[in-house]
Structures are given as structure tokens and as C-alpha cells.
């Protein structure tokens, strides 16, 4: 998958799941945790550099899940927000592969992520060569998203709860999107978990 460009993949799973009250990374869906489901999709594509960013509840998560093939990077400042995890993940990727051309960011609470969603993102990024390619669901754009190396300084400069979506508002920031039909469904509350259980059939 990454033979056409040097691509790292970063799974952002450091959040505290405060609204849910328990680690959303460990919520089960179709016999596996949400985090395992996400890692499985990544494994199928043969990326060489795979980073998993943990923070809150890291010990509980590491006791439950095997991370074969993934380098675990701990975000001690996870409470500061998404920007800190993006920075930890990107820095870990660059330390493992300093000739990086692109980095693909995912989160661990999109249960309907498919392998094809990732393939489309990577293909668009490599063929059209924008600064970034985001997923689009409804009126929103977001993760998974892949970024070219010219954006790395911008990603490292994000602060607080700023996600990489902020970059689209910058001047001359050209980007593409790929539709992710059920990307808008994520797991934040107990109601989401109950709804997810009903959708497993």
C-alpha cells in the first residue's frame, strides 16, 4: 500500500472518554474492541510505520489489547486536547522514518470504518497531490485524513483542542475529500454504545 509513497499511519486513541465514563477504545463491536477493529483495518493495508497514541487509561488498554506491529507512543499531556496527540503521533512517526512523505491519521471510535475508505484517501493523496485529503460525512469533514510533508510544521503547531481540520481555513491550503458514508457515527456517550449494539446485526 505504501510503496508509492512513504506513508506512516497514526491511530489517535489517547482521549479520556469523559462523556462515556469508561474507555471508548475498549467498547466491543462485533466481537472486538473498537481500537482492535481500527488496528485491523490498518494492518490489512501493509503500512510499514504504524503508530498508536495512547494517553488516558493507557494501562487498562495495554492489558487488554496486543499491539503487534504498532509502536506505542504515550501522550502524557492528553488532557490538553487533540493537538497534543497529533504532535506525539507525528513526532513518533518521524523518529521511526525520517524520510516520511505522508501521514494518515485515524481515531479509534469510528466503528464503520472500512479498508476501502483508507485506500481511497491514500489514492487521492498520491495521485492528486494536495496538501491533505480528508474524509467527508454529511456537511462535515474530518478523520481519517492524510497529510503531505509540507503540512508537518502546521500540524506540529496546532494547540489545545484544535484538530487538523483547522488547516483548511488557511490561505492557499489546497485539499481533497473522499466520502465516508457512516463516518459521522462515533462513540461518545452510553446512548451511542446502545445504538451501536442495535446496529451489530
From TrEMBL:
InterPro entries: MobA-like_NTP_Trfase, Nucleotide-diphossugar_trans. Gene3D superfamilies: Spore Coat Polysaccharide Biosynthesis Protein SpsA, Chain A. It comes from the Bacteria. Residues 9-169 form the MobA-like NTP transferase domain. This is Nucleotidyltransferase family protein. It comes from Flagellimonas halotolerans.
Amino acid at each position: 500500500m505504501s510503496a508509492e509513497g512513504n506513508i506512516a499511519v497514526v491511530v489517535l486513541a489517547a482521549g479520556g472518554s469523559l462523556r462515556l465514563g469508561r474507555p471508548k477504545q475498549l467498547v466491543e463491536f462485533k466481537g472486538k474492541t473498537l481500537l482492535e477493529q481500527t488496528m485491523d483495518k490498518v494492518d490489512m493495508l501493509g503500512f510499514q510505520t504504524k503508530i498508536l497514541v495512547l494517553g488516558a487509561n493507557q494501562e487498562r488498554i495495554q492489558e487488554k489489547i496486543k499491539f503487534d506491529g504498532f509502536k506505542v507512543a504515550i501522550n502524557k499531556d492528553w488532557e490538553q486536547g487533540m493537538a497534543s496527540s497529533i504532535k506525539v503521533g507525528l513526532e513518533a512517526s518521524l523518529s521511526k522514518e525520517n524520510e516520511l512523505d505522508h501521514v494518515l491519521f485515524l481515531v479509534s471510535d469510528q466503528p464503520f470504518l472500512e479498508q476501502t475508505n483508507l485506500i481511497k484517501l491514500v489514492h487521492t493523496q498520491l495521485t492528486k497531490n494536495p496538501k491533505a485529503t480528508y474524509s467527508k460525512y454529511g456537511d462535515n469533514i474530518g478523520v481519517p485524513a492524510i497529510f503531505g510533508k509540507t503540512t508537518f510544521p502546521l500540524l506540529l503547531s496546532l494547540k489545545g483542542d484544535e484538530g487538523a481540520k483547522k488547516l483548511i481555513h488557511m490561505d492557499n491550503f489546497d485539499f481533497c475529500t473522499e466520502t465516508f458514508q457512516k463516518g459521522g457515527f462515533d462513540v461518545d456517550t452510553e446512548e451511542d454504545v446502545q445504538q451501536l449494539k442495535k446496529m451489530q446485526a
